[in-house]
Every structure is written in structure tokens, then in C-alpha cells.
Amino acid sequence: MSLLRTIIETANTLLCRLKRGRRVVPAPHPGDGLVKLNLGCGLAVCEGWLNVDASLNALIAGWPHSLLKIMYRASGANRYYTLEQYTGLLGSHRFLHHDLAFNLPFPDNSADFVYSSHFLEHLFREDARRLLAESLRVLKPGGICRICVPDLAYAVAQYQAGKKKAMLENYFFVEDRASYLARHKYMYDFELLRDVLQELGFVDVRRCSYQEGRTPDIAVLDNRPEETVYVEAAKPAQSSGH
User: Fold this and answer.
1) pTM of this structure
2) What's the half-sphere exposure (Cβ side, CA atoms, 13 Å) at 136?
3) CA–CA distance, 156 with 135 (Å, rounded to integer)
């Protein structure tokens, strides 16, 4: 099964690269009239959001239940979700399969909220910067971007407390040979993330508490409070050309 998963993940990576640069229009507004994008979501999703991810799961979302059952066996998700949870999530939420290291496939000023949790660290620094710039571009003036990442300060504290092996394995050398997407490629604390957001043109950059902020549904979306830094930033109300 590990060989099958490796083959499937490799094929998915190649497909992502082939699809780079594709532009699509945003999904129709949900009932509340807001366009909400959940970037690099994995299976941490919420009703009313468009979930954008490059994983195999996003690619097969909406497939017939019988096929999802087969794919579940080859998916790394079977370590964290039951079959019923897995098929339920992929069958009842909106997904878009897209490589976020390249761009966001949405028009300018088209989204009210952008949310991303425990994803930015899976991108190389320049790719992460590009994604944040793309988030600024697609947000409407005054729109909010909430970024949640493992806190570098927390990781360093774990090292200083003598938890060296756990710190290295959890934050710097994630062992998942079957999935290139699972590996961490950079780390942030609040100041590092604040600086890049401000450099790109975001305003009102603030550190938030767990499940507190201006972003809707964070009581569902936020997770791992003990190790996470939560940051919200706004697109200027009067856009300066982004």
C-alpha cells in the first residue's frame, strides 16, 4: 500500500504542475453572500468555504462513494479519519484542486476572507510570499486574511526544554516519505510573519488568540492552540493597485 500511495502522490504532483497557471472564476456565493477561501486546507474544512488544496483528496472530492472508499485505503488521511468521516468530508464540502505554490486562480478583489492554517510552512519562503501576495490581490478592499502557522518560538522553547528529537521531527524534518507536500520548508514566529505581510501591503496586522478574531467560523477552523501563532491582516480599504 505504501508503494501505491507513493505512485499516486507522484502522479498528483505531476498533475498539479501541468495545471499551473489555470484561471477559474470563483465559486458561487454561499447563502451568507460572502466568498471565503480556505487555502491548503487538507480535510480541515467548514461549511460555506471554498477549500483549495493540491492534495489527492481535493482532486477526488465529489467522486462516487465506492471510489472514495478505494482511495481512502491509499490515502494518508486513513491515519486521522475514519472511512465515514473521510467520505463525508469529501462528499459534502466544496474543493478546488490547485497548486498554491504557484498562484490563486481567482480574479482581483473577489474574496471577502482568506484563511490558511498550518499550510504556509509547507511552502518555500518565496512561494509562501507569492501566496500571501496573491491573497492580497484576490481580497476585496477591507477583506481579512487569517494565517495560522506553527510558532517558531514554541518550537525553540521545546528544544530548550530538552525535547530535541520531538522538536526536530515535528517542525523541521517531518518524516513522510510518501508525500512531498507534507514536509515543512520554512518556519515563522509572529514578527517574521508580520514583517512579510506589511512588506506586501497588508495593514492592521495583529496577533490573535485561538478562535478569536475578525474571521468567520474560526471556532470550527482554528486548531492546535498550544503550538500555533494566529495572525490577521487586512487589505487596505482603498486598494493601491494590488
Assistant:
1) 0.85
2) 24
3) 29
User: CA 26 → CA 34, 67, 113, distances in Å?
Assistant: 11, 27, 13
Per-residue pLDDT of the chain (242 residues; tens, 9 = 90+): 454 455 445 455 555 555 555 555 555 565 568 999 999 999 999 999 999 998 888 989 988 988 888 888 877 788 889 999 999 999 999 999 999 998 999 999 999 999 999 999 999 999 999 999 999 999 999 999 999 999 999 999 988 999 988 888 888 876 665 556 677 889 999 999 999 999 999 999 999 999 999 999 999 999 999 999 999 999 999 755 44
**Is-contact 139 223, C-beta < 8 A?**
no
Domains with residue ranges and CATH for the chain: 2-21+35-234 (3.40.50.150)
